[in-house]
Each structure stands twice: as C-alpha cells, then as structure tokens.
Design brief:
With 395 residues, the protein is an alpha/beta fold. The chain has two domains: 187 residues, Rossmann fold (3-Layer(aba) Sandwich), CATH 3.40.50.1820; 140 residues, no CATH class. It has a five-stranded parallel β-sheet, with helices on both faces. Strands 6-7 form a two-stranded antiparallel sheet. The two termini are 44 Å apart. The mean pLDDT is 91.
Length: 395
C-alpha cells in the first residue's frame, strides 16, 4: 500500500488490515461492524512493541470516511482521526452523484443522468440491495472529540469535494470540536493520488506534500499541539451539485417495478409463445398475424432486457467512474438504441390497440385470440408510462 510506506517514512507505525468479507458485499454491510473491526485493529496496534498506546489514531479513506468517525466516537483509545476523500452526505446521494459525474465526464447528458440514474438507485435501495443508503454522517461526526485531518483531491469524482468538507466542518463545530485541519491538494483525485486527466486516471504517486502533512500533523496533535479550524488549498472542482435522493413513491418502489416486469414478461413473451404452441399443436391459426403486434412483443422484450442489462452494468461499474461505451448525441449508443426501440414499441402499441378494438367487434375472431391480443395491448399500455418514468422516452 503506497500510503502505508509513505507514512512509515514519516516515522509513523502503520497497521494495514484487509476489509472483512463475511457480511460485506455490494449489497450488504454494516458501518457499525466495520467500525468494530477498526477498533480491533487499534487494540492490536496499541499492544505492539515500540508503539505508544496513547498516540494511536485511525486513517479512513472513502467509505472509511463514514466508518472511521463511528469508531472514533465510540472509543477513548483513538487519539486522532485522518479522513481522505470523506463524504458528508448520505451514501445513496453520494453514489448517485458519483455515477452521474462519471457519465457527464464521458459526455453523457439528458434524462439518463438527471432521471434514470437517481431512479435506479432509489429502487435498488428500496429493494434492500444498497447497504446503509440513508446513513447520516453528521450526528456521528458531531460526536468526534479527537483532532481531525481531512484530505481531499481537487479532482475528486467519487465524493463531492465542494459540498462534503463544509458539512463535516459544521458537524464538528456543532459538537464543539474545532481541532481540525482540512487540506485540498491540486492535481489529485479521490485518494489524494496524482491524476493526469482530472480524476479519470489514478497514478500510483501521492499528491506532493500529502504524506509530509500527515507526518507533521500527527506529530503535532500527539504532542499536545492540535490545530484550530484550518482549511487550505485550492478550491475543489465540482461541476454539478448533488441532489436529494428520497425514498421512492409506491408506484416507483421495487415491488411495483417487479410487478411491472412480471406483466411485461407475460404480455410480451406470451404473445410469441402462444403462437409457437398453436403451431406445434398444428391448430388452425386465428386472425392473421399483425406486424405491429409482433413489434410490440419483440420491441418490448428487447427494450426491457436491454435496459436492465445496461443499468446493471452501470451499477457494477458506478464506483469506477461509469463506462457507458460510445456516446452519440449526448447519450451512450446502447441507450440511444434502446430509446429508439422504446419509441417504436410505443407507436406499435397504439396501432395494435386500434386493431384489437376492431377485433372485439368482429365475431369471426376467436375469443382466445382476442384475449391474447388484449394482454399484449395491456402490456404495451403499461410499458409507455414505465418507459417514460425511466427516461427511455425522454431526450
């Protein structure tokens, strides 16, 4: 670990441990448990020969910026706190901003960034698949009594670097703790490593002066000379503000989305399946196959499956600055194709609905065929507002 070596060269003893795997995954974790792990590491370090147990602190990076204050607030064994790329916002709000920032950096704009990404994470959180989504760091930070060193790279694309530090400072001030130093490093990314392209690429080198700051700051605070409310460095670059990410309304909930998907699979998938079954059984066909109905069935299925696959990909890569692929007209090429297909499906639904209405009045058409076509129309009717709500029918 680059940081551990750099800090050791400053005369510090550094303990590095692996993050737990049991109970920790993309969809499951507990900051309280992670904080207990950190305190366990503190206990181990305090027992090492040559280590002054009264001068042991915690360094927390990124997610550790939520975890480390929990540990520090719970223990008198922690004498100082160092936060790198720490976030003063709720995890869900930060993640939405990070994914949107990555997409914007890739040249993406419009409904995918402004509507689809926030909705995606709200649904994921509602389904219990996003850990600690509404964790509020302010009350915990307000209980931190130890001196705090906060470090941010000017080009942080994963934590909003302009909004987070003032929130953390306000929480510390509210708790009566004014022994903090906040420093912004130019040319640095989320981890305070150098970046040649404004945060997209992380170099192995630490920002000049970062390790030296940690060494001198720790020496001061452990010698009884804690700083008082110092904020310095160039202004961070944050092209867009974060926005609140409230829980979804009932019609946007994970349950409602699953119900809609079930309807689509039955309605869109059932249309060709019943035709295939009739052919295999060599039954007399009903009404002549409709091209528009086939478009609704195929277009709806491909749009749903494609959108699901694309959005899952964004979830899996969202913490890595999003990789949308080729961008055309401010939209990923894949998403643009899905939008075009969704529009075709919506138009075909209108045509099919008109044909179905006429078929009801025609006594010659079998009842089963009318029901089959009616189910397809029902799926298409629900598909239109669903596609609108996910930005598939918006620019």
């Amino acid at each position: 670990m680059t940081e551990a070596v750099a800090f050791a060269r400053q005369g510090l003893t550094v303990l590095v441990y692996d993050k737990r795997s049991a109970g920790y995954s993309l969809f499951q974790r507990s900051y309280a448990d992670l904080a207990e792990d950190a305190l366990g590491a503190v206990a181990v370090l305090r027992r090492q020969p040559g280590v002054d147990p009264a001068k042991v602190g915690i360094w927390g990076f990124s997610e550790g910026g939520w975890v480390a204050p929990v540990a520090a607030a719970k223990s008198r064994d922690v004498s100082f706190l160092i936060l790198v790329g720490a976030n003063g916002l709720q995890p869900l709000r930060q993640q939405v901003w990070a994914v949107a920032s990555g997409l914007r950096k890739a040249g993406v704009a419009g409904s995918l960034v402004d509507l689809t990404v926030p909705k995606l994470y709200r649904v994921i959180a509602d389904g219990g698949m996003f850990p600690e989504p509404y964790f509020d760091p302010a009350p915990v930070v307000g209980q931190v009594w130890q001196p705090v060193l906060g470090v941010w790279g000017v080009h942080d694309l994963l934590t909003p670097p302009r909004e987070s530090p003032p929130l953390l400072a306000a929480a510390l001030d509210a708790g009566g703790n004014r022994h903090y130093t906040f420093r912004f490093f130019p040319g640095a990314d989320h981890a305070a490593h150098l970046t040649p392209d404004a945060g997209l690429t992380r170099l192995p080198d630490l920002a000049p002066g970062y390790a030296e700051l940690v060494g001198s700051w720790v020496a001061d605070v452990t010698s009884g000379r804690p700083p008082t409310s110092q904020v310095s460095g160039p202004a961070p670059v944050q092209p867009a503000d974060t926005t609140p990410v409230p829980p979804p309304a009932w019609w946007e909930s994970a349950g409602a989305q699953l119900a809609a998907l079930a309807l689509f699979l039955v309605a869109f998938g059932g249309y060709p399946v019943t035709a295939l079954v009739r052919r295999l059984r060599r039954r007399r066909p009903g009404a002549a196959p409709m091209r528009a109905a086939r478009v609704v069935s195929a277009g709806g299925l491909v749009t749903i499956v494609g959108a699901f696959a694309f959005l899952v990909h964004q979830v899996m890569t969202g913490g890595k600055l999003a990789t949308p692929g080729p961008v055309v007209a401010d939209r990923p090429l894949v998403w643009l194709a899905l939008q075009a297909l969704a529009a075709v499906t919506a138009v075909a639904t209108v045509v099919t609905a008109a044909r179905w209405r006429r078929s009801i009045l025609e006594r010659s058409n079998p009842v089963g065929e009318k029901i089959r076509l009616g189910l397809l129309v029902a799926g298409g009717v629900v598909f239109v507002p669903w596609a609108l709500s996910w930005g598939l029918l918006l620019p």
